[in-house]
Amino acid sequence: MDENEYFPIDIQVKDNWRFSQVAFLVDRDDFISDIAYRRTKLKVPADLIPRNRIDYWSELTGEFDVPHSGFNVISTKLLHRYPIIEQFILDMLKKYNKSTQFHNVIKNALLSGIITEDDLPFVSAHLRMIDQEEYARMYIAGIYIPTEMALILTPETRLEDVTKAYKKYFRNYSQSYKRHLLENYGAKTPKTMPSIRDARRWYWSHKWGEGYASIAHKEIMNNNPNINPADLSDTVRIKSGQIRKAILRYQSSLKASSFK
User: What's the CA gap between 178 and 170, in Å, rounded?
Assistant: First the structure.
């Protein structure tokens, strides 16, 4: 195919930003040259291939010139088009520094000359499990929800895509995870208490056998050593009640964050 006979790719995309991502690739002179050259080598028909026939056409065999390994001798072999097409797409992704999400953009630019919404990157920011093998081990152990996810970005990612991915995908994942723990293990994600550090310290003091009143007395004297002795008894009583509630809440949070 002569490069001068090359017609612009038909970009059927509504969003201007997404349209530009395609146009700034397929309208490059070097991209046009690469497509025209490869169409000739693949013997793509001059009127190109209907989109609904691409997969069928790609699986057909054709006679292609291939060099012998280690020699400059060219021979003709009957080969499937599919691996040749895929290798070309990979070469183009590498050459033009595009992510694999542009796979179908290049494929349809090559074969059909039409790019639609379906060919564009599904999302430029998405979630992915950190370790597939670790997830498999957790699944075998009976823990079916992975607890670590990564937010994957591409060169085309915008800040709004990151925000959207967090709100749409991670938030749903997080809620599903918490719901799973509650339904299957009776567990809840503990909420941070306002006095978490104090509650933890009191919890361990009580666990080691110290009574609420004793803990309260120490707290009061450490914070207000000049307290009026006449007020000490009532202050200890009130503080003891506060400490008891804090310890009970801490114990409740421990149970909520543990599997049955």
Answer: 12
